[in-house]
Design brief:
Helix content is about 50%, strand content about 20%. The N and C termini lie far apart (about 35 Å). Helix 1 packs across helix 3. The protein is α+β, with helices and mostly antiparallel strands. It contains four helices and three strands, in the order αββααβα. The protein has a single domain, classed as GMP Synthetase, Chain A, domain 3 (2-Layer Sandwich), CATH 3.30.300.20. The chain has a three-stranded mixed β-sheet with strand order 1-2-3, with helices on one face. A hairpin with a 5-residue loop joins strand 1 and strand 2.
Length: about 110
């Protein structure tokens, strides 16, 4: 596991907090009845890319919702830039992924209890 700098940690926390807020608003309008949460944010060393891992429930809609979010990346990055423009000099590019660790844990749980 690579060592994170203090700056990377601060920025990943900032991205996570602001993304949660942006996605909450987006969720209400575009994906009612679904739950989207930001589980992890990893920022590259040069702070140029923020990899955002999303938990989507119910998980059968995860791929479909992820695709829609990816199509809206430019708009989401714009919203994010307006929120943190005074804090960050460079707005990182956003990459969205599904955090399937809950599915993985659930699967292990099923295997252990059969």
């Amino acid at each position: 596991m690579e060592q994170y700098s203090t700056r990377q940690n601060k920025i990943s926390k900032l991205v996570q907090r602001e993304m949660a807020d942006i996605l909450l608003k987006l969720n209400k309008t575009k994906f009612p009845g679904k739950l989207i949460s930001v589980s992890v944010v990893r920022v590259t060393k040069d702070l140029g890319i923020a990899r955002i891992y999303l938990s989507i429930f119910p998980s059968e809609f995860a791929e479909e919702i992820l695709e829609e979010i990816k199509e809206m990346t430019k708009q989401i990055r714009g919203d994010f830039g307006r929120k943190v423009g005074k804090t960050l000099r460079v707005i990182p590019n956003l990459e969205f992924y599904i955090d399937d660790s809950l599915d993985y844990i659930e699967n292990i749980d099923k295997l252990l209890h059969t």
